[in-house]
Amino acid sequence: MLQDIYPHVFCNDFVRRDPVPGDIALFFPAPDQVLLKSGENGLTLPTFADFSPVAAQGADHLFDIDDQGVYLLAKPGVYSGALSACSTLQFRTLQPGHLAFAGITASQLYRWKHSHRFCGSCGSPMRGGDWERCMVCPNCHQVEYPKISPAVITAITDGDRLLMVKNDRSSYPNWALVAGFVEFGETFEQTVAREAREEVGLSVKDIRYIGSQPWPFSETEMVGFVAHLDGPDVITLQEEELTDARWFARADIPPSTSDISIGNRLIELFRAGELG
């Protein structure tokens, strides 16, 4: 999955330190764009060596990958001609994988900081926290932490069949699993049952946790479950959310298009007969 970067090590300890030329330097011209470097092996993440010294001024240390710091630039200054603005969706396929994870995680933190430049309570400019990763209003002392929205994704099974859904109107129009955000007052398991009921009109039982993953593309923590059909298998489609939903026999499950998501992991576990 996206976060599985072993033998590389991700460290999100909150520390303040000045960058060195070999540290990763990321500048986002817009919430969905990032400066990437073109090289012989394709796109990669730039370092401070690709920018003029002014880039280090006000650079915000986000986290480390191994011994390499990852920084958010406040201003890029003059930079190498090998750098160009690219869609952050490039991080879905960027190689090696540990750099893709670094890039998309940095973009999540950029979007959070960008959307909290001003206090939502009094409107004053906010600043970064001195002792933890947060944005603080110096006027009313409102504190905002990085946005992380919990959501569930569920492999709904009926014997040798798996329920799959799709939304041709979304940015991911491929076959996937029932998923949705956790609402107030709910447990994860209650969210699983509600989403199954709302999106496809099905009741489920034997809800079981499988795993989780950060999904920085949507500031989400995805929590994966398997659940068994409880009752009739007739699908009632929520057309505002989906364009299709079907039961697939194990042998007929569509081939995977990516291996970075927990949704894909659930599908592959079922395909292999490892989800009871």
TrEMBL record:
- Protein name from the UniProt record: NAD(+) diphosphatase
Source taxonomy: Bacteria, Bacillati, Bacillota, Clostridia, Eubacteriales
- Annotated family: Belongs to the Nudix hydrolase family. NudC subfamily.
Q: Which CDD domains match?
A: NUDIX_NADH_pyrophosphatase_Nudt13
The organism of origin for this protein? uncultured Anaerotruncus sp
MF terms in GO: metal ion binding; NADH pyrophosphatase activity; RNA NAD-cap (NMN-forming) hydrolase activity
User: Which intervals hold domain Nudix hydrolase?
Assistant: 146-270
Q: Which domain of life is it from?
A: Bacteria
One Pfam family hit: Zn_ribbon_NUD
Instruction: Give the enzyme class.
Output: hydrolase
Mention one GO biological process in which this protein takes part, according to its record: NADP+ catabolic process
Q: Which reaction does it catalyse?
A: a 5'-end NAD(+)-phospho-ribonucleoside in mRNA + H2O = a 5'-end phospho-adenosine-phospho-ribonucleoside in mRNA + beta-nicotinamide D-ribonucleotide + 2 H(+)
Query: Might you give the EC number(s) for this enzyme?
Result: 3.6.1.22
